[in-house]
Amino acid sequence: MIVRSVVLGQRAGTVAPSDQIVFGGIGIGSRGQHDLSKLLNFNQARFVAVCDVRNERREAVKSMVDQKYGNHDCRMCDDQYTLLARQDIDAVLIATGDRWHTPLAILAAQHGKDVYCEKPCSMSMEESWALADAFRRYNRIYQAGCQRRNGANFELCKELLKTGALGKLHTLYANVGPAVNWPPVPSRDWLAAEELPPPGARRGSLARTCALASLQLRICAGRMAQLLRFSWRRHSRMGLAHRGPVPMGSGI
To answer: What tens digit of pLDDT does each residue of 154-212 get?
Structure first.
């Protein structure tokens, strides 16, 4: 027998909790709150927890979420592992500084979470390869906020180019904004290969926790020299963000 949800007390037009994607957020600053404002209007998703090292940002996000849902249920934490350990969270919104995007996304995948991450995806091609490899390995979904890939105006340009409407294309110009002079990105030798997880490994196991701690140490050790030289606020359109002068969970 098939029973309509309204018979069971579900209001028309609402989504059953079992059909919602449960989200948490890491590093939700001004840009992250813009993303979150869109997410909160999506009935198929529900936001339940925020992680940030800055208390004022945790409080701002909690207030924003609680006001939307009319309750006080949004949880706050200052450690990403606390949020990622929650079994009820399906996916995470990552909007930290750029250098933390890749390692946090990989950690999320290792905890069995899907990810929506602010651009850029990584700080180098090597990080991008590691990111793609991790999400294939753990069979998780990753999406990056790249408006210049899927915005309607850029889709139109691609279509005009493919159909020949623009004629023969002979010169391309690209820039990252006025008066920008970023230094070259240093080597990414710290990206050591990972062993495949054992068959049937459960997320949240002791072995995985140890592996995550090992990855974290490799990331921090490999980046220390770089972060002493470069400001965390320097954004790179080629990549992502990590730990340094600004702690890992701080949003932009």
So the answer is: 889 889 988 999 888 888 777 666 666 666 555 555 555 556 556 655 444 444 444 44
Give the DSSP per-residue string, 155-184.
HHHHHHHHHTTT---------SSTT--PPP
Which residues, 6 or more positions from 252, have their beta carbon under 8 angstroms from its beta carbon? 27, 29, 30, 31, 32, 95, 96, 97, 98, 118, 241
In a domain, 235, yes or no: no
8-25 pLDDT, tens per residue? Answer: 555 656 778 778 999 999
Could you tell me the CATH number of the domain that includes residue 95? 3.40.50.720
Among all chains, which residue has been given the structure tokens 């993303």? Answer: 35
Identity (one letter) of the amino acid at 45? A
How many structural domains are present in the chain?
Answer: 1
pLDDT of residue 66: 97
The amino acid occupying position 20 is: Q
Cα separation, 17 vs 19, in Å, equals 5
The per-residue pLDDT of the chain, averaged, comes to 77
- Does residue 150 belong to any structural domain of this protein? yes
Question: What residues contact 129, with CB distance under 8 A and at least 6 apart?
Answer: none
Task: Determine the Cα–Cα distance for residues 105 and 117; give it in Å rounded to an integer.
Answer: 7
What phi, psi does 63 have (nearest 5°)?
-60, -45
Q: Quick check: is 242 in a domain?
A: no
Structural domain for 156, as ranges:
17-176+204-229
Q: How far apart are CA 166 and CA 171, in angstroms?
A: 12
Residue 1 lies in a domain: no
